[in-house]
Amino acid sequence: MKKIIIINGPNLNLLGKREPEIYGNQTFKDYFELLKHHFEGIELEYYQSNIEGELINKLHEIGFSYDGIIINAGAYTHTSIGIGDAISGIKTPVIEVHISNTYSREEFRHKSFIAPNAKGIIIGFGLKSYELAVNSLI
Length: 138
Known about the structure:
The protein is an alpha/beta fold.
């Protein structure tokens, strides 16, 4: 059985409450339960932190033993050389995901420190972006 983890960064714990016009009304916890049901043959895990170092530690912890990592690093995507370096240093393939189309938003969101080290990027399909990422890893 494939083992895939979804890692969400800062403020994604507020999904369902924060800016629903951009991110929708569904909590990630509720969405994750649907996702697990949809991919019953896959061992899916979820981790979220608002702290950059914790995200890096999690990548180091699992980056050599899992079959795939899906990461939405939130704002750290555009600011964290450390997360980009952590992804560069691990073996597990990483898919970068964003709920909104970052290229239709502020210009600072157009730069990703994750993208050069990711297997692929999926942006702008709402929470379905995570489902597309899982499909790309199986």
